[in-house]
Amino acid sequence: MAKKYNEFDVVVMPTIDEEPFGLVALETIAKGMALITTNSGAIPEVVGEGAVIVDKNSDFISNLAMQMEKLAVDSDYRNELGKKAYSMARRVVAFNIDNYYYRLVNILDTKCSQNTISVIVPVYNVQDQLKKCVDSLINQSYTNLEIILVDDGSTDNSGLMCDELAGLDQRIRVIHQNNGGLSAARNSGLDIATGEYIFFVDSDDYLDLSTLEKLMNHMSRCNADVVACGFAYTYDEKTESPFTNPSPGIWSGKEAVIQMMTNNNLCTTAWNKLYKACLWKDIRFPKGRVHEDEATTYKVLYASNTVAYLPECLYKYYQRENTIMKGNLEKRYKDYLMAIEERIQYFAGCSEQRLVDNSILVLLEYTKYVYRSIQSKERGCLKHQYNKYIKEYGIPKSIRARKKIALLVWKYVKA
Which pTM does this prediction carry? Predict the structure, then answer.
């Protein structure tokens, strides 16, 4: 294949589906050749200024043809682009083709090491579900685990059950604390975790017995910092129902945040992901709030170099009538809006306009969703809040005209 590149002056890579890393793009810039490609997946992060990027979502065919014609007839432009590409491929260590192949061979030749996974399980009044959850952990095919049960002031037998389970398996550690909520329980687990990897499980959920082994293997294969799996809703009397996208993927941290906000794959949930523990060094969940995942997960993904998604539904998300996130929308939506506003400010501080725009869109769409879903005086407050968001943030420029019009027109809906 390397010899084939020598026969041509320009490589056209018109990818419209998600491109996980872009090996062809990497090989092209390493050869110092002019490249035309798209803003798919992690490609822009790979090629930087060393390629012509065509927006796949805006008049794609015409713009692609125009760039192809320009490079075909303008040899100076073509040579200048090739020099930039070659310089970048040598300057950025992570994109050096020799280093890439060396790492790839090492990954393929190395079996998954038996590093410790710290599994953090917040526990609160789940005496009927706890044993099933813990059984799914102690019977994992990946055995090098530190299972941290955080009894968050349970008023039933859950705390006693934690101690009894710890007596049956030396890998289980128990924390008893006053009730502080899900965030406080997770944070307590993070504070004492000693493993090289972190995984969260809610105490009324459970895992397929091969979950952690498959995630560790996938993390090794992809050289990823975070690996998410698919999940399915499970019930007492109904068959399980898959929720997540069936297509696999691998992205840069920045692109992973976009995926989290726009697709049912990574999702914002903390609990369907295996993380390198170092990512959590300076990140904790906000105490005293619901929608804590919305306020936290994006920071971990953004801090990652590579994020992978394994679509198999390995995590089983149990649905019960008194689950905290069911109902009470009027009581909890404000925490969600607060989390998204914080996200907007976070990415604005990082000068990440694309991530800001996507967050603004999430904020506006969720406000509309809550407005449609409740019947109370809160609707007037939401209408006022929506107009405030439009005035403060505006409509993201990156979205299509029809969507812009729909968002602007909604300002005039009667409360």
Answer: 0.74
